[in-house]
Specification:
single chain, alpha+beta, 3 domains, Arc Repressor Mutant, subunit A, 467 residues, 4-stranded mixed sheet
């Protein structure tokens, strides 16, 4: 085999440490960024907070923000990022080093923890406590049993325990708070809650009869027919129906269902003199500086001191440049989003315009992956509330007249139409399609059904009310 030397020209993406750092900072959430800044300040003695001046809020002109030249020759936010870095899931937030930092997760007990706490306060024999633990393990997050008492008894495999003892312990656990737990179905869940109400509660007995024998007929059966079946007056039936509606069909969901998240906005949007202004939150990225006095002292020291100063000085400048690049990119993207979604800021969800990452990327001359990183776990405070930047992106649906509508706006319109409907004659999906089409939103019936389910709106036959 003959060996030979060949020259070949080609291009290759080189991801420098500085560019890697810029990418990492851009995709960080506020809480992760704060922790990274604190860790960098601890590890680099040449870097410190600039306490002389706070970062000034910037009043952004959209055209200027989009087209302004940036001194980012070493930190260009461009298409090479997507090519060089594989897509990855957004970084998970961790607790900040500063306990006073406003964005932190609150720890909550799970439903099982809540029930175990009550079980430990209940006087039970050792065998009954084992049964109680098995029952607690057998409920879902709604507080509903996922196994029958018979199957739980079979799984225990304890000779001296019979089914009656399992049912006795189950009855005791059904008195745990919140009321309605350890039921096998919705009917039993509601009956448990009704039984624990005081006997003097108005319409309690009528409500119990309705739930026990006619639960499936409540949404659709005529009021007079139901009144006749339970031998009650129509006025009593109306009171019983109101009492049933006040019960909780998923009592377990109120305990540890979600962790409450507190966020600090990265962007503030406000209206001043009929003009929308976009400002960075100065608290999310404090102004840093190099301690020149310390640098001068090290530069006059030994060779190791000069080497330390040179290395850490370069790292400090890279880090500050990366923070600057992050802020400029975030501000540029947020400004363009506000320009597109002015109608939302003025009218709410119904005014949301269709918008995708590619739209913003092309207008600010960034890659879609960069826009995605800049909008993930970043929040914007507006007069209508605080939203993640990704909230402002929604799919585009084109109507018969060629007009584009946002899926968010369509969902908001569906919700409004259902809210305003006559409860005795609720709007069907076909009727909703017709009403949306009249507003310039041509949507298929199956799409309406999908959006309705996403909004947790039941079908028309279940929304019908006869009183």
């Amino acid at each position: 085999m003959k060996q030979a030397l060949q020259l070949k020209l080609g291009q290759q993406v080189v991801l420098t440490p500085q560019l890697q750092q810029a990418i990492k900072l851009l995709q960080m959430s506020t809480i992760d960024l704060q922790q990274t800044i604190d860790e960098t300040l601890e590890s680099n003695a040449l870097l410190e907070h600039d306490t002389d001046d706070s970062i000034e809020s910037q009043d952004i002109d959209f055209s200027a923000a989009t087209n302004a030249d940036e001194d980012t020759q070493e930190l260009d936010v461009d298409t090479t990022w997507e090519d060089a870095v594989p897509s990855a899931a957004p970084p998970q937030s961790s607790h900040p080093a500063d306990p006073h930092f406003t964005e932190q997760d609150s720890e909550e007990r799970s439903l099982q923890d809540h029930l175990l706490w009550q079980l430990n306060l209940t006087r039970l024999s050792d065998i009954d406590r084992v049964i109680g633990l098995a029952l607690i393990d057998a409920i879902n997050t709604d507080g509903r049993l996922t196994q029958t008492p018979e199957s739980i008894h079979s799984d225990l495999s304890i000779d001296e325990v019979d089914l009656e003892e399992v049912l006795a312990v189950l009855h005791r656990l059904q008195h745990f708070e919140p009321s309605g737990l350890f039921a096998e179905d919705l009917r039993e869940c509601l009956l448990i809650q009704l039984r624990q109400l005081p006997i003097s509660t108005p319409f309690r007995d009528v409500a119990g009869a309705l739930v026990s024998r006619h639960l499936n007929q409540l949404p659709t059966a005529p009021l007079r027919q139901l009144a006749k079946k339970v031998r009650a007056k129509e006025s009593e039936l109306e009171g019983a129906m109101q009492l049933i509606r006040s019960l909780d069909p998923t009592p377990g969901a109120s305990i540890g269902s979600e962790q409450t998240g507190y966020v600090t906005p990265d962007i503030f949007v406000r209206q001043h003199n009929n003009r929308w202004q976009v400002e960075l939150n100065p608290d999310i990225s404090p102004k840093l500086r190099v301690n020149e006095h310390y640098v001068a002292i090290l530069s006059e020291g030994s060779a190791s001191d000069r080497g330390y100063a040179k290395e850490h000085l370069q790292e400090a400048r890279w880090f500050m440049k990366s923070l600057q690049s992050r802020n400029e990119t975030l501000l540029k993207v947020a400004s363009k989003i506000v320009e597109h979604q002015r109608s939302f800021l003025e009218r709410g969800e119904i005014g949301m315009k269709p918008l995708i990452l590619a739209d913003i990327a092309s207008e600010v001359e960034l890659h879609e992956s960069t826009v995605s990183r800049a909008t993930t776990q970043k929040y914007m405070h507006t007069p209508r509330g605080t939203f993640e930047l990704k909230y402002f992106f929604s799919s585009r649906i084109t109507g018969d007249d060629g007009e584009d509508s946002s899926s968010t706006a369509i969902k908001a319109t569906v919700r409004q139409l259902v809210t305003d409907e006559d409860a005795r004659k609720p709007l069907s999906d076909s009727r909703l399609c017709t009403l949306l089409k009249a507003q310039g939103m041509a949507v298929a019936r199956r799409t309406i059904a999908k959006y309705r389910e996403q909004l947790n709106i039941p079908p028309s036959n279940e929304r019908k009310r006869l009183n």
